[in-house]
Structures are given as structure tokens and as C-alpha cells.
Design goal:
The chain has 13 helices and 9 strands. About 50% of the residues are buried. It has one domain (about 30-390): Glycosyltransferase, CATH 1.50.10. By secondary structure, the protein is mostly helical.
Length: about 400
């Protein structure tokens, strides 16, 4: 009689133990509830749709930018993510409003960042609503972006000029290729896909060191000849600027998704190994703004880099059989840290941004240890990916 009672109890205990080990570390519903509360405050404090939330000034005031700023699409994109989770019409209305606020940038041929500016809001909007009004702005914007590709160099030009660089290309540029892939499929224009692949291939050849870390800026001459490799936002030309490594890993993960070419996944996994095994990666997995910053451990962390990494690691976990668990666990630890009080703001504080402690441009003393709009965007994206993978 005792065995009949004890055995079921032991089985139940073992089942509960296994279940508790697999229980998600992050409650996605809780985090999105908070995010929605913060962004309700953000919307209320931003009635003017020509002033896009960016960060916080040194005096604590909100830092807003115009639609031509490279980050203008992230706020609308975040609103779409909140709509995706909640399904509430008010978020769809707000997201549509702030998406259309950047539409004029579809004609902007002075920037390589049209993927951030247009694809983040319009792309998510179209994905979630199938509103065909969102198609034309993206196709026009993709054509504008394509004008920055010069066959003589085989790359999309990042900035019109940078110091003595006539043709500078930054690792961030990898993030705008997804936009070209979408436009190529939608328009049946194969040249856009070819531009994305050519840019990614030449970046792979010239932007990386033997340990898979990336330079920030590569200066080119015609014929895809490199005459200088340097940094702009990192600690040194030879250092591993954290957000740059995140752009690189995310970018080559997208390249694998879009082409299924194994060389791109191999590159993303090489970058991942560099990050995961780096001796300067803190225990909470939120990187310093540069892995080689001069005054470690007394350097600022970069929540934005962690958010980008987390989102990329989660997607990579669906492609890699060998490292699936490692990538997922790394992303989960990053998200758990970002969702803690150490990095998540208190309600109605932080100028209504979700995350604290990001770094934009430390060498210029710009946006250092502040909230930044793209940190929130990739954090919300990562939460949605985590939700899907954990069946929440």
C-alpha cells in the first residue's frame, strides 16, 4: 500500500523537477505588459510625428530626431511589435501613424540605413496586416538604397565621405540587406538580390579578422581594394566594438536565411563563438560597449548590443543542430538580464523607454549610458522570437 502512494509521488516530483528545469526564464506577457505601459507614455509625450523618440539628453530631457535620422523607423517598428503581441487595435493605429511619418524617406539616397528607416516599420506593418499601401514605399526605398551600390567597388557605400575615406563601408550595413531581399522577391527584380549578396561577400572577405571579430569601417578604392581598416565608434581600430559584432552576427544570420548558403551560417557561428567564449563577456551576458575597452571592468555596458545579439542567437538556434542549445541558452540569459531591474526601467521613468544602459558613440561622448530606441526595438523582437520558441 505504501508503494502505491510513494511511487506516484516520486513520479510527480520527478516530472515537476524536469518541468521546472525547462520552464522559461522570461515571462514574455509580463515584459510586453510593461512595454505597452511605457510606450503609452511615449505616445502621450510625442504628439508631434515629426519628432521621433531617440534617446535621453545629458540633462535628462527627451532626445528627439527628424525622419532623416537613421533611427527614425525603430519607434514605429516597436509599436508594430506591441501590436503583434497584444492584438489591440490602438497599437495598430499608432504604428500605422508613425510608419507613415517616415514615408518621405523612400526618396532619400544619401543614406545606407533605409532598411532601418523603412523596413522596420513598413515591413512589420505589411507582415502583420497585408496592407498593400505599405508596398510602394518599400519598393521605392529599396531602389533608393540600390543607388548607393557601385559595381566598381562591389559594395553599398555607407557614408558619402568619412575623413580621408572616399568610399567608406561600415559593418552596420549588413543590417540593411534584408530590405533588399524582400524588395527583390516582391518586385521580381533579381538585381536587388545580387547587390545584397555581392555586398555580403565582399564584406565577408575584407571586414573580419582571423578570430571572426569585425572592423567597424573599411575604406575602399575602386576594384574592391582596401586601403584602410579602422573604427569610428569603437575603442580602437583593432578593437571589437560590441554593437558592430552584433550587427555582423545578425546580418550573416539573415544572409543564411535568405540564401541557405552555408558560408553565411559558418560566418555567423564564427562570430557567435567569438562572443560566447570571449573572456571579457560579463557573467550576465550584457557586453561592455567594446570588448577591448581600455578601462575594463570599469566601462559602460551596452544593452542595445545585447538585445541585437539575443534576437540573432534565437534565430541561429533554429538553424544550427550542433550549437542549438548553446545559442538558445545564451539568448535566454541575455534576455533575463535585460528584463531585470538592472537594465529595465521603472514604470514612467527613463523617458518611457524600456531599457536603460545603452551606448551609442562613446568616443564622441554621445548617447553614453542612456536609453536608445533601437535597444527597445531589438529587445521586443527577441521577446517575440523567445515566445515562439518557448510556446508561451
Amino acid at each position: 500500500m505504501k508503494k502505491i502512494i510513494i511511487i506516484p509521488f516520486l513520479l510527480m516530483f520527478l516530472f515537476q523537477s524536469v518541468f521546472s528545469q525547462n520552464k522559461p526564464l522570461i515571462d514574455v506577457k509580463k515584459e510586453f505588459t510593461f512595454a505597452a505601459q511605457q510606450y503609452e507614455g511615449m505616445l502621450a509625450s510625442h504628439p508631434d510625428i515629426t519628432k521621433f523618440p531617440q534617446s535621453t539628453k545629458k540633462n535628462g530631457d527627451p532626445d528627439n530626431r527628424n525622419s532623416a535620422w537613421w533611427c527614425s523607423g525603430f519607434f514605429g517598428g516597436s509599436l508594430w511589435y506591441i501590436y503583434e503581441f497584444t492584438g489591440e487595435a490602438k497599437w495598430k493605429t499608432a504604428a500605422d501613424k508613425w510608419t507613415k511619418a517616415v514615408e518621405k524617406e523612400k526618396f532619400n539616397k544619401t543614406t545606407h540605413d533605409l532598411g532601418f528607416m523603412l523596413y522596420c516599420p513598413f515591413g512589420n506593418g505589411y507582415r502583420l496586416t497585408q496592407n498593400k499601401d505599405y508596398i510602394e514605399p518599400m519598393l521605392t526605398g529599396a531602389k533608393s538604397l540600390a543607388t548607393r551600390f557601385n559595381p566598381q567597388y562591389g559594395l553599398i557605400k555607407s557614408w558619402d565621405k568619412h575623413e580621408d575615406c572616399e568610399y567608406p563601408v561600415i559593418i552596420d550595413n549588413m543590417m540593411n540587406l534584408e530590405f533588399l531581399f524582400w524588395a527583390a522577391k516582391e518586385s521580381k527584380d533579381k538585381s536587388l538580390r545580387k547587390i545584397a549578396i555581392t555586398h555580403a561577400d565582399n564584406t565577408l572577405k575584407h571586414h573580419f579578422r582571423d578570430d571572426f571579430s569585425s572592423y567597424h569601417v573599411v575604406c575602399y578604392q575602386p576594384g574592391t581594394k582596401v586601403f584602410r581598416k579602422k573604427t569610428h565608434q569603437g575603442a580602437a581600430d583593432s578593437s571589437a566594438w560590441a554593437r558592430g559584432q552584433a550587427w555582423a552576427m545578425y546580418g550573416y544570420t539573415v544572409m543564411y536565411r535568405e540564401t541557405k548558403k552555408k558560408k553565411y551560417l559558418k560566418q555567423a557561428e564564427g562570430i557567435a563563438k567569438f562572443i560566447i567564449n570571449h573572456p571579457n563577456l560579463p557573467k550576465d551576458k550584457i557586453p561592455y560597449w567594446d570588448f577591448d575597452a581600455p578601462n575594463l571592468p570599469n566601462e559602460e555596458r551596452d544593452a542595445s548590443a545585447a538585445a541585437i545579439f539575443a534576437s540573432a542567437f534565437l534565430e541561429m538556434s533554429t538553424y544550427s543542430k550542433k550549437n542549438k542549445d548553446t545559442y538558445f541558452a545564451t539568448a535566454e540569459q541575455m534576455l533575463a538580464s535585460l528584463s531585470s531591474s538592472a537594465y529595465t526601467a521603472k514604470l514612467k521613468e527613463n523617458n518611457n523607454f524600456i531599457l536603460k544602459h545603452s551606448v551609442g558613440h562613446k568616443p564622441a561622448n554621445s548617447e553614453v549610458n542612456t536609453p536608445i530606441v533601437y535597444a527597445d526595438y531589438y529587445y521586443l523582437e527577441a521577446l517575440l522570437r523567445y515566445k515562439k520558441l518557448t510556446n508561451q
